[in-house]
Each structure stands twice: as C-alpha cells, then as structure tokens.
C-alpha cells in the first residue's frame, strides 16, 4: 500500500511538472520561429539562427530557474503540510507568460501578414496551454481523493432513508430532510447538512444527484461510480467556456485585430478561478465577475464587428448566468420577488 502511494505521488508530481514546462517550451519555440522569419524578411536580412537560438536559450533558462528556485521549494513546503497556492503559482509562472507570447506572436504576424499566410499551427500551443492547466487542476483535486462512491439512499422500515456518505459512514435521514452531524465529510467536518447539500458540488464533487434507492439487481455492477471520474468530467466542463473564448482569438479576422488583447486578458483572469477550491462559496461570485460578465460583453462586441466568430450559445450562457446570479442573490431578497413570503 505504501508503494502504491509513493507511485501515485510520483506520477502526480511528474504530470504537474511536465504541464508546467512543455507549454512554455512549445510557445516560446514558436515565437522564436516567428521572430526568425521576421529577421529573414528584413532589409537587409538579419542573422535569424542567432535570434532563434537566443530565444530558445532564454526559455530553457527561465524554466530551469523557476523549477529550481520556485517550483521545487513550493512543492517541498506543500509536502511538509504547509499550505501554499500551487494553482496560483502555476497560473502566474506558466499560463501568464504563455498568453503573453501568444499575444506577441499575433502582433509580429501583423508585420509579416503580407508575406506569410495565417499561422495554422497556433491552435496547437493554445490547446496545449489550456489542456495543461486542466490537467493541473484535475491532479490537484484527484491526488487526495480516495475514490469514494456516490452516496446512496436505502429505505428503512420506518419510511426514512439511511444515507451512506462517500467515506462509508451510514446515517439516517431525519423527517425534516436533514441529516445529523457526521464527521469525515469532504470540505467540512462535523456540521449539519441536508440531502440537497450532499448532492451539491459545494459539499461533494462526486454526487451529481441523489438516487432514491440503491439498485441491487443483476446489473448492479453497472451502477459503480468513482469520484475521480466525476472530477475529470467536471474539470473539462469548468474550463469549456474559457477554451471557447481563447479559440475565438484564432479566427483570422480577430487574430490580426486589437481584439486579441481583451480576449487573452479576460481569459487569463478567468483562469484565476482555479485558485479557489471547488467547495468554496466564492467560486460562484468569481465565476460571474471574472468570466461570465466580461465574456458576455467581449462576445457581443466580436459578433457585432466580425459576425458569428463565437457561438451565440456561449453568449446566451453568459447572460443567463449573470441574470440568474443577480436574481437569486439580490432580487429574491425583495418583498415583491420573495415567493416564500407570498405563500405565507
């Protein structure tokens, strides 16, 4: 068992380190190629090979420096049970310089636009940067997750339900729909919670719904589930809007315009949400402030100027989430919209 934990720890650390280094090397190498082409097209032509290898050497020195002086000490402090923002450090050290060089690449291509066709390879580094960020997010959420099954509900003789929590603790549902104090729940310890809280993302990332009964038939093996698999799906859904926004910057009309700057800036700000834990109550507010609200205005501007370079579905999603956040958090507190007060 101890050997398995060591192997899991090594795999997680290697995946995170690869996700930190590989996007930087790919993006900076692509930027070096673009700058070398500019040198070849200049009058008189410059030494493109020297510029290329100089940028590559700078990228290697940067990755080596952050690995030795920031990443490894940070991991040591995390290993010593001293909490540090690993996700924030990753976003600052890897995602930020990658986005900066992607913006610089678009500006350099404006200079050589008449001589070289649109760079179709740019889709690879953009996808690689975001995929590495998603993998880092998944590793941070999975590495301490034991892989518990979804809580199930088994009817009792008294008409109540025995709830089995992800850690295997069995508790009985009270008539008012609440569950007594339970220890070992993810996110908090020994606090009252309700049935709806069990199935919410804030208390259990594994429980998307609460089945009314536990299936015990011949196909019960198909009902097996794992919280880690749910984390994989949830991580990709969490980042899908940001991925689609960055993809808009790859459109030729947008790529050579000034709209590249707000797209990458607001996309990077939305990446800062990874610092907040999935069960944090701040996640909803940050999602609206850093993603849905600015994304709505950016997409509205893009569609108005360039046509449907961004799907209308995502713009309607941003608008709906903003309106729902305002309504459920502010409007329902007014007497006119308070449906519970109206019923009473």
Automatic annotation (TrEMBL):
InterPro entries: Uncharacterised_FAM23-like_TM. This is Transmembrane protein 236. PANTHER family: TRANSMEMBRANE PROTEIN 236. The chain crosses the membrane at residues 7-31, 51-74, 86-112, 253-276, 296-314. The keyword Transmembrane applies. Keywords: Membrane, Transmembrane, Transmembrane helix. It comes from the Eukaryota.
